[in-house]
Design goal:
- The chain has helices at about 1-15, 55-65, 85-90, 110-120, 140-165, 180-190, 215-225, 270-280, 305-320, 330, 335-340; strands at about 20-25, 40-45, 50-55, 65-75, 95-100, 130, 135, 205-215, 230-235, 260-265, 285-290, 345-350.
- By secondary structure, the chain is α/β, with parallel strands linked by helices.
- The strands form two sheets. A ten-stranded mixed β-sheet has the order 1-2-3-5-4-8-9-10-11-12, with helices on both faces. A two-stranded antiparallel sheet has the order 6-7.
Amino acid sequence: MKKLLMTAMMVAASVGLANAQTTQRQVVEGGGTGPFKSEVVGDESCPGFTVYRPQNLKEVVAKQGKLPVIVYANGACYNNNVEMRLLLSEVASYGYVAAAIGPYDEEDVMAQWRGVLKASYPETKGEVIMANGEKIQPYTPEEIKEQQKELEQRIKEMQEKEKNGEEQTPPPFIQTYPRMLLEVLDWLIDQNATADSEYYHCLDLDHVAAMGQSCGGAQVLGVAHDPRIKTCVMLNSGIGDMSMMGSTKESLKNLHTPMFYMIGGPGDIAYENAQLDYERIADDIPVVMLNSKDGHSGTYYEKHGGNYAKAVVKWLDWQLKGKKEQSALFLNEDYLKKAFPEWTGVRKNF
């Protein structure tokens, strides 16, 4: 009973029962390059999530029709979606509503991920230029040595505290779980049906994508069986022979929708797992895998989410909006080489 009560409290904390009530709002990179300027919002009735959407929803729906939905899970299964802020804002500007795990956060994307990028700098990439114009170089041997010394010192201090019986500060709770993707989808469904909600009759719930980066891709596989999901996007992710977030290679048997893997090439730690997934996915499931040379961090920190955002928009336009002209990137090798000369692609079951 206690466990059930705790579970109920966690769900209530992340997805509220009230109607949508936007309390926080920001515009990222001018609202994107799409036909509809986007915004990032925090909602009092859904505090455990962040919504990326076009501004002036009703006006956009009047022009385009109801908006397809994306549910998104973060890299490291982290309870914060700042890393994908540029990409999700860009995608939303093309007429999508994306609900991402993690509460609304106004942290500086560039400051937070500068160190991550330097640490994971792929050898195949000549230069990294962030959206703010800053050029990123990999850590030098001297910097790496200094970081190692600092790490060793922190470990030594922690060991001393433990030896002396001093209380250790516990790490912050960052764990998320796959079902959160379905919980926020349930919330959107409720809001779409509620007359005084901001989302009333604005959402195309027949066209829903589940998308995740790295560990978030394992969470996508954990809910991919849900019939409401019409396509899955795996960014720098693959399960391979691993067990993560309750997903294993057996989870691939639950797939029922077209799959898109966007991988960062051999320098991406997800590369080998993604190749195994591609081989194992059943012959009745359409799947495309594109590989760049950007490593595990993709182009998420580049202006408007970089080329990864462009590929994601094309896939979603094709799969959720029926724009067949957008399929060329995924089905036409000549088009792929012309659009992204350094990328490679494979596909099957189309």
